[in-house]
Amino acid sequence: MRIGIDIDGVLNSQYNFCIDYGTKFCNELGKYKLENINVIDTTDMFLWGEDIAHQFWNKYRGDLVVKLPAKKYASEVISRLKDEGNLIYIITARKNNDEWFPDSLKKDVEAITKKWLEENKIYYDKIIFDVKDKGKSCKDHNIDIMIEDDPINLIKLIGNTNVIIFDYPYNRNTEFADLTRAYSWYDIYYKIKRI
Question: How much is the pTM?
Fold first, then answer.
């Protein structure tokens, strides 16, 4: 099988990062607070404008993409899947010159991402950057299963591949009720074995 894997929210805990670092940032500013935990975007979480969100990501994006470790057992499970003969595709919207990265990282997003994957022992056969439509990308690359968390991507994936949702409050909409939901990397392994 060809297994597609997202990075932010699937290989790392971006949601918890946003809450932890976002509440810290609100305290640094002396205003704003956590307003909504059922969303994926920091602007909606804290009711920031884009200017404040850019300030936040300019200050803390490096901590997310360089320092934040991979989720527990992600490396172990992916290695098992590879050893069992599956092909592993990392499919991400990350790209060089992304406006949501600080200038110090902007031109090296792809190299930083590959280094993070290597340091966290995340094996892959192929990595695809700058993916705007994951449904189309999965179809084009004959992906059998895609592991994803973002509702916008989930909508595009339905009908194009089997989907495993990495569970978060922001993706518990009724429109995803019929999709396979997972809560940890070993839960993902169990569910892949049954697809």
Answer: 0.96
Q: What is the mean pLDDT of each run of 10 residues along the chain (195 residues)?
A: 98 98 98 96 96 96 96 98 98 94 92 98 98 97 98 95 97 90 98 92
- Give me the residue spans of the domains in the chain: 2-13+70-193, 14-67
The CATH architecture that domain 2-13+70-193 belongs to is: 3-Layer(aba) Sandwich (3.40)
User: What order do you get walking across the sheet with 162-166 strand by strand?
Assistant: 126-128, 87-91, 2-5, 145-148, 162-166, 180-182
Q: How many CB atoms lie within 10 A of CB 94?
A: 19
Residue 106 — left, alpha, or beta (φ > 0 → left; ψ -120 to 50 → alpha)?
A: alpha
